[in-house]
Amino acid sequence: MSVTPQASGAAEERTGLRVAYGGAVYPAEEIARGAAYELFSAEEVAGFEWAPRPGSALPWHRFVHVTEVTAVHGATPPSEEAEAPLLVPLHRDRGWPQVHQLSQQPGAAGDPTLAAVRGSALVRRGTRMVKVLSARQLAGYVRGWLPHGFCYREHDVAHLRTPAATTVLRTDGEGGRDGGDVTYALRWRAADPGDYDVPVGEAHRGLTALAHRDQLGPAVLGTGFVPSSSQLIPEFVTRDFADLPMPANATLLAYPAEGVEVVLYSYQAEQRGWLRMVGPQWRHLLAAAPGLSPDQEYVPTGEAPRSTQLVGVYAGGEYEAVADLPGGFRVLAMTRAARYPVDAAARRVRFAAWRGVPCLVLREETGWLRLRLRRPDPDAVAVTGAQCHERGVYEVWAPAAEVTDDEVVDHPYAL
């Protein structure tokens, strides 16, 4: 494999990394610990985009997933365990195009090859998860929303870094019309694999049967993959479509048109709020988020009752806990001396039923309960009158007196 001229000299010294792609070698920068790479070129190359940066002699670039490159030269040893890659068993009669085609066909959900590919995408404790957000959703998370609904492993989507590229991952149905030249995302570490489901099988079949008028965002195919003409991306949903407790150091991100990652906020668990991380040169990226002040240093989420809670046991007592991964779980305490590692941990959630439909209880206000459907389908939506707020997430207010089977359930984590 030949080394192209743009992969030598000052450019190579600047990046310290070279990646072989498409029959040539390019200077590159690593993304998401080697899940993807940004390639640079001094000359126009098919598939590269013009994106000059100050002080750079390489004005052309493109983002590629690690599975698209043939070799990486000059990479540093990984600092942590790599995520399990998506494995596609190929043979003479069925290559990648055929597997991708199957992933886009709802009727192929039970295909053994497709199931094997989907089964190779694993979530482990500490896996970085990503949810792409609209400007409205970004404002919601800053004010206290918790991770819920459809999401993805960062490892699988690290190469999708621009507003145009992330459209396939949107859940709000706005399709990039807000924000325009910027897209947003929430990134957090998974506390436990049991907090996530794969949207395939009987439990999620109702999502595929919902009428288009009752949905937001891309259709749910039921194969466990994102609807896309060119990408093979495994998708996940939070278990029961429940909110998950926000782990320490979760981040809210922005990706402007040039594809750089800008950390807007970092979650401070003890203070229950978001610390602004972005410098003055990027604060304009917050302009599209309704009600957010770019100059506000810290944004508390408030003390409203939480729809879910992480609880831990320490020295025989129960305390509110926080996932501080990859380190583990500890007591949620303002003082460092009291942040003891817990002996056991569980995610606590409240279930109920209304009109025979299994629901989550999100909050309670003066005799009314805010409910979210655990298994949306046409019948459940029709019976409850639930409205779709984002892809797969259906909510409704119900009189508390009519709700049955109201119970608090703990999902224990294996420590």
Describe the structure.
This protein has four domains: 69 residues, no CATH class; 199 residues, no CATH class; 39 residues, no CATH class; 61 residues, no CATH class. The protein has seven helices and 24 strands. The protein has a nine-stranded antiparallel beta sheet. Strands 16, 17, 18, 19, 20, 21, 22, 23 and 24 form a nine-stranded antiparallel beta sheet that branches. A six-stranded antiparallel beta sheet has the order 4-5-3-2-1-6. The longest helix has 8 residues. The protein starts with 9 loop residues before the first helix and ends with a strand. The N terminus is likely disordered.
Structure summarized in a few sentences:
The chain has 415 residues and is mainly beta. It is built from seven helices and 24 strands. The chain folds into four domains: 5-73, no CATH class; 102-300, no CATH class; 308-346, no CATH class; 349-409, no CATH class.
Oligomer: single chain
- If strands are numbered along the chain, what order do they take across the biggest sheet? 10-11-8-7-9-12-13-14-15
**What is Rg?**
22 Å
Q: Which of globular, elongated, flat, extended, rod-shaped describes the shape? A: globular
Using DSSP, what is the number of strands?
A: 24
Strand content: 25-35%
Mean pLDDT rating: 91
- Alpha plus pi helix count: 7
- How many strands, which pairing sense, and closed or not: the largest β-sheet? 9 strands, antiparallel
